Amino acid sequence: MSSCKVFIKGHLTGNVMREFFEPVCGLYMARQFFPAYDSQRQLESVAPEESVKCDLREKSDGSRKLVEHKRYGDTCPASWRKQLLSGWLQRAQRVPAGLILQLLCESKFILNAPVKFWQFRGIPRLGHMHCEEHQVGTGRAHFAVMKLTAKTTYILRLWYTLVAVIQLNAAEDFQWTKNNPGSFYYGTFPAGFLWGVGSSAYQTEGAWDVDGKGPSIWDAFTHQKGKVFRNETGDSACDGYYKVKDDIQLLKELKVNHYLFSISWPRIMPTGIKTEQLNENGIQFYNDTINSLLENNITPIVSLYHWDLPQVLQEKYGGWQNISMINYFNDYANLCFEKFGDRVKHWITFSNPWAVAEQGYETGEHAPGLKLGGCGAYKAAHHIIKTHAKVWHSYNNTWRSEQQGMVGISLTSGWGEPVDPHSQTDRDAAERYIQFHLGWFANPIYRGDYPEVMKNYIGRKSAQQGLGTSRLPTFSVQEKTYIKGTSDFLGIGHFTTRYVLQKSFPFLQVSSYRTDHDLAELVDPTWPAPGPKWLYSVPWGFRRLLNFIKTQYGNPLIYVTENGVSEKVQCPQLCDEWRIEYLKGYINEILKALNDGVNVKGYTAWSLLDKFEWNKGFSERFGLYHIDFKNKNKPRYPKASVDYYKKIISANGFPNPREVENWHQKAMDTCSTTRQLLATDSLITHMEMVTEIVLPTVFTLCILISIVLLIIYLRNHT
Length: 718
What we know:
2 domains; alpha/beta; three-stranded antiparallel β-sheet; single chain; 21 helices; globular
């Protein structure tokens, strides 16, 4: 057993020395870039002027000698990254040049320590440097890094920087993260990258029957007992209809570039049919909202459909089961283009149509609550895809030349990772998982038809049931041509990941979407799950999904339209540290995907406010801002994640470890103050309730008691 001591001078911020030894006392490697390796390190976090001790067991091929690295200044060096020497003459390990550049520019480091002989050389392989140790003599290898003067250090640092600039290759820089999905990359997003938050009409607006608004399928659904947790409704939701200016002020505080919101179809067309009735109050509401956003330099991104179909269309025609929805929706979309298109340049036809089809017409968990097993979801999706294409062509032919906007669709999908990546069966199952979620809608739009695997599996199971045709509808040749290419951008919603493996379901007379794809979904119990059982934090899956889209669909323009995490509400949770970690991890994976060449142009955190979460009611909270729904004024309170996300936006990414570490602490400090304010307001609200309920009750009782006493008195004196 030999010992290593590392002496650190200066101010050590954020445990910057994460990977110093592996498996010998090697060169310094910056701690923050390898969070996944924590369990493999014995390095402690120390205060200034203290020392760190690391005991390393001697290997059979020789012992390891003491090395000292002395540190000057207040920032970490970072010329060398990954593992160094694990044995005699170990091969050199790659170091991403982009990371060298980042750390060199903030480094004031002088290496101190003796080495028998070190040779540093740049390898002419683009994007990387190698660091090699050469054995001199026989016996034990004595390590030491020769003491460098400040001038020598400056020259070395400049030399490495120049080599890195010349040899930089962005694609190769990021290869190391593919084998280390838990790793973190510090860097910034391209100039012009859009940052925003989102919400939807039914979840936030409330005012369900105010100012001429017609009922939606969600109004009808939530008013039925037993459909929603605790029978809660979105009748008032966040009172967003009355608090638009307040919420836009929150957007200003966040310093976002854009706000993604949806228009309520029945608010501007009460019956859903343009020729029957228009609601000018609803049109004016959205005009005012759009104008207020633009006055505050916030770009509106508008979704035409976030699940709130007019109830009249559901009752008369069966909703998305009926092909007539194509023309009714196209009329509605053209009205929106006419009224708002001079100011709105980003349109989303449908937000997460997978949920509309599968949960609305297959399982019945969502409005309209129909359980049309085996074919309902496929039929609804078929009509939605055709509707999207018609709206895109309408905009392209009528409005594009004048308004110069874009029309896309927002698809939500998890990532499916094979349980055994070496098993072809599991890899095929993971592929099916993606195709039955994302490919169901993306394939027709980008390739002209449903994924082959969907057609094969659903067709085979339909034949087993004795059906003459597949339960999956087909597109004609003309329809395929008409649909293909109808998206100026692809909106992507992503929340979590699943491990996937093959699972053959027995023959069933009545099949369903869930049994058609013959797979099982698993989760890793170590994945963080702060709230609902379905939402696990697995950031590395996002990068893989984005790269899948790049490969499958020709690297389309992508806007991330929904990404966030909720918590189960038992009490107000303003210090939402888990949400900070979630946002940090998922946004960082987008940054890596950008360096992979994925064409991502914007990010939307989901969501601005705690809101009505469909069949879960108010039991799940996705908001960056907490709402006290017990208070009739429904005040908004910023959670810690507000401050953290604001810092990401201001820095346009993650500039360096020290700064990002400080963000976390400041966010926690901010939430402590907000929590005190919420506690005070809650007490006041409670007192108001007491005043409004208890005092009138007591007063009424006093009157009754007085009357009774008066009657008794009169009887006794009669």
